[in-house]
Amino acid sequence: MSLESTTLPPTPSRLRCSSTRAKVAVVRFPGSNCDLDAVQALRTLDSVKADLVWHEEPTIGEYDAVVLPGGFSFGDYLRAGAIAARSPALERITAVADQGLPVLGICNGFQILIEAGLLPGALLRNASLRFVCRWVNVRVDNDSTSFTKNMKEGDVLHLPIAHNEGRFYASKEELATLNREGRVVFRYCDGDGHVSSSANPTGTLDNIAGISNKRGNVVGLMPHPERATEEVLSPFGDSDGSLIFKSMLGIE
Amino acid sequence: MARLYTVKVVVANKEGASDPEGETVYRDLVSKSGFSKVKSIRTGKFLKVSVEAPDASSAKRIVQRMCDELRIYNPAAHSITVEV
Phi/psi at A10 (nearest 5 deg)? Predict the structure, then answer.
C-alpha cells in the first residue's frame, strides 16, 4: 500500500444536482423494518426528497444517494445480509458507489454492504450471544467521509444500537489497512470519548462501530442514526443522528 | 484404552417438514444465480463433538444418547444423523 493512501481525498458534495432537492433512495428488501424510519428521518431535512424504493426497482441507480436500512433482509437466512448482497439491487448500488455518490448502510444495511464486498471484514454474532438494544456513545474517528463532514474528529454522538450480529471482525492485515487509511469512522466510547473495553457493547474488534470504503463515499455503521434525528426521540435530548444524514447530503 | 473420537452430528428439519431458511437460500439466492442444476436446499445445524470412548461405536452411542437426553434436537421437528 502506498503512502498516498494514508489520507482520504477531501470529499466534496458529489450530489448530481446541488441546485435542486437531493433525491435519496431508501431501499426496502423483504424483511427490512427500519426503512420507514429512515425515510421519515430524511424527510425532516429541507432540500431532500426521500423515496422508499423496492429492491427490485431498476430506478435505484438514478438517485443521488442510497440508504440501506436496518432490519432482517430475507429473514437473515444463511448469514445476516448474505442474500440481499447477491440481489440485483446491489449491482445497481455498486454502480452508484462507483460514481462516488454516498451510500450508507445502517445495521442490516452495513451487514449487506460487507456481504456484498463494498466494505471489508465480517459482522459476527455479539460476544454475549445476545441481541443488544440500548443507547451508546459513538466517537467520530474520521471527519472527512461523506457522512461525517459536519462533525469533528473526537466528537461523541448519542445513538441507539439494536442488533445480534454486530461484532466487527477483520484479519490483522485488513485491520491495519483500515487504520492506516483512516477508514474506521466510528468507535464505541464512554461519555468522554475514551475508547475502552467497558464501553464496547458487543465485543466488536477495537470498538469499531462503523467503517468506510477507501474513497470515503460508502459507510456502514451498526448504530441507528435514523432513530436519533429528533430531540424527542433521544434520552439525551439531542438529534445527533441527523448530523450523519446532513453530512451525507451536503447540508450545513 | 479410552481414546478421543470426533463425532459429527447434523440436525436437520425432518423430511417433509418445511424448511423456510433452505427454501429462501434456494429461491432467492441459488436459483437466481445460474446454478440451474441445483434443485433444492435444506439447511441444518452441525455439531462436532470430541468424546472419550473405548471404541468408535461406543463414542457414537454416547453422542446419540446425549442428543436424545439433552434434546440437542427436537424430535417433533428435526431428525439427526450421527457419524464417527
Answer: -60, 145
